[in-house]
Amino acid sequence: MIIVMKPKALKKELNAVISRIKGLGYKPHTIYGETRNVIGAIGDERGKFVLQSLETLPGVEKVVPILTPYKLASREFKKEKTKIRITRDVAIGGEEVIVIAGPCSIEGQKMLTDTAKFVKKTGAKILRGGAFKPRTSPYSFQGLERKGLKYLLKASREAGIPVITEVMNPEDVDLIAEHADILQVGARNIQNFGLLKKLGKTKRPVLLKRGMMTTINEFIMSAEYIISEGNGSVILCERGIRTFEDATRNTLDLSAIPVLGERTHLPVIVDPSHATGYSRYVKSMAFAAIAAGCDGLMIEVHPSPETALSDGGQSLDFSAFASLMGEIVPFVNAAGRTLAS
Ligand code: PEP
Ligand code: MN
User: Fold this and answer.
1) pTM, full prediction
2) Is pLDDT at 47 greater than 80 in this prediction?
3) Of 211, 206, 204, the residue nearest 188 (C-alpha)
4) Which atom in ligand 1 lies closest to the alpha carbon of residue 210?
5) Nearest-angstrom CA–CA distance, 39 and 290
6) Residues 188-199: tens digit of each pLDDT
7) How far is the CA of 300 from the centre of ligand 2 (A)?
């Protein structure tokens, strides 16, 4: 249920509604708006009719049900788009489109710092790099783990760029939160509910990748897990889904961009690297994603893709990344946005 307060409602009236919600066994989530405040009452759907009685309290304008299965992530609950601040000068979900770039895996200090400096110079706002890698085969490179996190922090400081890295287990959340500005949940962990709940208790923004077999509703429900535990800084990432088509690694679901934009207030970014699996298709799909209205891109970039320890075939080298960053500008502008600079 959403409890919409009157524009002139007093603070003590708001507090009275909040304590009544708690008294009825629901969890209040307040959004402080410019003209009025709105409270979401989250809990067991079956008894929600009791919340209707809140309409009689002073300061309450109306009580309306949220019809979607996800509540806090829904546009019904929050009309304005969420802008997530990463650092003082980097935010995701605003008017500016941002680019996240870097290698699939962190392979060493030099390659990472060189990539950090290059992508920053070329216009990327955030460096990516995996230290804990989810690999299909247990015999493939699993990432440099703790050592990788150290390299990531050093590259971030030397290049002056915020960083994102993947977290696979709830036990690693605190460690990774000490080393990265954004925590990434990979496609394979989209329904690792223990991990999502733990991430809901951190203060770091979370980038949630859509699973390869996840519907849009399931995707948003996973975001709801994180938000309902107290962390509202969730960025959604479309990275392709598994279909019958095998000419590309996955099929980029471009229509997810407007659908997510309609159903949720969360920022949406697109990863054309994992979506296509081939470096030569990355640019076209990046253009298409921007045209469809996404808030940013995540692109794999490696100093020498042919020697990469993971995902070399889909990684752009420095010169391909530089040309993408130049050629994308007219698409960004045509979409009514600007490229963060
Ligand atoms: C990654 O970003 O390196 C990754 C493993 O992606 P995904 O979880 O989308 O497969
Ligand atoms: Mn990868």
Assistant:
1) 0.96
2) no
3) 211
4) 9
5) 33
6) 999 999 999 999
7) 7
